[in-house]
Specification:
single chain; mainly alpha; two-stranded antiparallel sheet; 10 helices; globular
Amino acid sequence: MRARLALAASATTVELREVKLSAKPDAMLALSPKATVPVLLMPDGTVIEESIDIMRRTLARNDPEGWLDRDDPDLIAINDGRFKHDLDRYKYPERHGSNSDAHRASGLTFLLLLEERLANAPHLCGDKRGLADAAIIPFVRQFASVDQHWFVAQPLDRVRHWLSTYLASTLFDAIMVRLPPWSPLDQPKAVDWLR
């Protein structure tokens, strides 16, 4: 989702291929043996396998909103490390053999850090949305959806407002395009996100 946000914000036209993770196509596995999504194949043959790298690469090419000026690598590293670890174990305790309540409590510490950060501005790095927001929002969205009643009861008014504003945006709406799972026989489907 965050890779799509950066692709859309940078007005990058892509051929989007929806992948069913339980039936990964051979073409994807040939490009990326680690077999995770997203995977971006650049016109020059370069393969980018990490969503944050896709974000930074596409925005380096075209960044009309100045997202790269509102980056916070340290905050994103906490999100991608400890918070994602807690999210996975809170959301899928049976898969990880984990105590979901303990991981929810640990994840809340990161959300409280965001709440504190949002006391100074409507976005994580100032008055306008930026890379830090787009890199973190999809994970907060997942965390909030595990138990919405619990999430609403937490002292996270600013985080909830930040999240709901993003989810109501034209940009977010544009990236939520749903396609059937891709097959090698399919015709290419170019996506011009905001047009």
